[in-house]
Q: What sequence folds into this?
């Protein structure tokens, strides 16, 4: 066997082990998500047994169980899962494409842009439902385009992209604060809860809208994610291996922005989910690749488990965004300290 053949065998073996580990991690995360789903559907002020839940989900439940399952718990649990999926995949796309762990929608202002547009639609225009989602998507897209154009100088610098994003996030937060000063007290209170990231207002129409949009955008994102491997290299290297750098990057930004926007419109800017999902999934899969599906599943587990804990484990029920911030904020501090120590902060 020649040296070239031995190298080819080694590469195939490494790829096989990587795929097998990714499949095992994906299966384990799916089981964990199913467990959280069952807990979210069965525990509460009106507890249900597994048999009651199964009969209700198969259209054989009582009227009381149908109300608890379909009107109270299913919209909240499914919305939490989809929001986590969207934020997790969106964050993994940004982090891989920009090659910077800080480049996530909630750090660089995409979520803040979506929030500002959504708050404007709610408070000033009195809109709700799909119209708010449309405004959130538009706001996120405008911010993402502005960051891209301001950061681009003969190529895209991840460090410049993050700094400009943080600056624009501050501007969007100022816009939100100004809109809040114009709102009535009751409106301001409800919007303030939404801005912390909450599933309290999850409803069946909202869940169905989020599910319909997710069924379109998530598969497209996973398919387009095959370009991320090339985009993690330099632009010249990516072009040399056949990747259309600018077109691929713009499409991936559009998809990542869309995921963050629909998740934000459904539950508000649930903080740090997009930030932690990608690194956790890469640590679990043992690689530095994109791992979009595991990242989405990590996000879904984090949001669902945090909402479950916020409802049932604390003395006072809290919005899910507070729990995810408690998880993500220490990780951000550790990451910044390690980045400074390694001198990779630019």
A:
């Amino acid at each position: 066997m020649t040296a070239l053949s031995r190298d080819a065998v080694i590469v195939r073996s490494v790829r096989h082990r990587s795929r097998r580990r990714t499949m095992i991690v994906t299966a384990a995360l799916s089981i964990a998500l199913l467990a959280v789903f069952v807990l979210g559907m069965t525990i509460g002020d009106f507890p249900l047994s597994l048999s009651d839940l199964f009969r209700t989900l198969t259209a054989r439940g009582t009227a009381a169980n149908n109300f608890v399952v379909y009107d109270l718990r299913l919209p909240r649990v499914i919305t939490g899962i989809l929001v986590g999926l969207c934020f997790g995949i969106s964050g993994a796309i940004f982090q891989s494409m920009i090659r910077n762990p800080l480049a996530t929608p909630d750090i660089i202002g995409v979520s803040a842009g979506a929030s500002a547009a959504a708050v404007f639609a709610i408070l000033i225009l009195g809109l709700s439902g799909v119209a708010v989602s449309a405004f959130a998507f538009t706001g996120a897209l405008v911010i993402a385009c502005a960051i891209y154009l301001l950061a681009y100088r003969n190529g895209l610098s991840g460090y410049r992209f993050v700094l400009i994003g943080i600056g624009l996030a501050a501007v969007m937060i100022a816009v939100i604060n100004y809109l809040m000063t114009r709102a009535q007290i009751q409106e301001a209170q409800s919007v303030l809860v939404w801005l912390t990231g909450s599933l309290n207002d999850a409803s069946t129409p909202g869940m169905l809208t989020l599910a319909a949009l997710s069924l379109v955008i998530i598969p497209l994102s996973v398919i387009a994610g095959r370009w991320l491997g090339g985009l993690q290299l330099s632009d010249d290297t990516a072009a040399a291996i056949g990747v259309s750098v600018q077109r691929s990057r713009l499409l991936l930004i559009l998809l990542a922005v869309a995921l963050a926007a629909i998740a934000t419109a459904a539950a508000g800017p649930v903080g740090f989910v997009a930030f932690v999902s990608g690194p956790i999934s890469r640590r679990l899969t043992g690689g530095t690749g994109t791992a979009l599906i595991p990242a989405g599943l990590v996000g879904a587990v984090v949001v669902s488990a945090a909402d479950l804990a916020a409802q049932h484990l604390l003395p006072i029920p809290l919005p899910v965004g507070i729990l995810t911030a408690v998880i993500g904020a220490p990780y951000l501090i550790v990451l910044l300290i390690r980045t400074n120590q390694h001198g990779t902060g630019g």
